[in-house]
User: What shape does this take?
Amino acid sequence: MIRIIGALLLVGGASVIGFGASWELSVRVRVLGSFLSALELMRSEIGSRLTPICELMEKLSRETISPLDSFFKTCGDEKREKQDVSFSIIWRKNLKRAEYLRLKSNEREVLAELGSVLGRYDAEKQISAISHLQRRVQSLWQSAENDRKSLGKLYAKLGLICGVSVVIVLI
Assistant: This one.
């Protein structure tokens, strides 16, 4: 009886690891998709209303899904508290600390470019930079979606197979 319980725990544990890896891929796709929506909102807010950075971050935190809403809220709150600090520094620091976004380093680098543009140039240049960034993030999102479709299933199945394999070896 104890062997059966142990075997079930091993298979269950390995499966959870596999499904966890698959879930992380799904979160990454969701975050990049949400960033695309946020970029579109940024573009319209800057283009039509010339919305100040703090107000823009607050609006983005209300309009985006979790976990991205926390990122924008943190950036806006920190800029409000530290008016003398460049938004670029705040953006990069928070992007680096936001492990919960599950982004790869190359995706973080692309998104870090946005911080150096927001609130620094005139509206036309900001809109142009956001449009350019949208195309790059769209490409990253497409790549992440392909990874999720192919690797997500692989990770889930591999976790289950590893658990069963360990049980077979131990029996």
Summary: The helical segments are 2-49, 53-63, 68-81, 87-97, 105-115, 123-170.
